[in-house]
Amino acid sequence: MPGRRFEWFETDQNCPAGAVSNKMRFSNPSYPTNDELRAWAAGADPVPPMQDWDLVLSWSMDPGFLRLCVELAEDTAAGASSFFSWCCINS
């Protein structure tokens, strides 16, 4: 859905009018939902919401979450492919 993107991204004061920041808002960055991770990973140049986010995510790794990380790491078209590869290695 084209409008869905604006629900998850916040506008940035430094962006031109109508532009969308690449900083995504998560309901809880320490425990993001699968949908939030997929939306974040699909971004062209996703910015982690916090320092050491790869470590935070790898600490809470369960089998279902690991499958999602592997799936996102395999998607080389996604901007976050290498980020999720790193999460899988650290888990």
Short description:
By secondary structure, this protein is mainly α. The protein is 46% helix and 0% strand.
Tell me which oligomeric state these chains represent: single chain
What's the rounded overall pLDDT mean?
Answer: 75
CA-to-CA gap between the ends? Answer: 33 Å
Q: Which spans have pLDDT < 50 for at least 5 consecutive residues?
A: 1-21
Radius of gyration, in angstroms, nearest whole number? 13 Å
Structural class of the helices, strands and pairings? mainly alpha
What's the tally of helices? 5
The major sheet is characterized as: none
Shape label:
globular
Q: List the helices and strands in order.
A: HHHHH
**Strand content bin:** under 5%
Strands, total number: 0
Helix content: 40-55%
Topology of helices and strands:
Blueprint (H helix, E strand, L loop, with lengths): L3 H5 L25 H8 L11 H7 L3 H12 L6 H10 L1
Helix pairs in contact: 3-5, 4-5
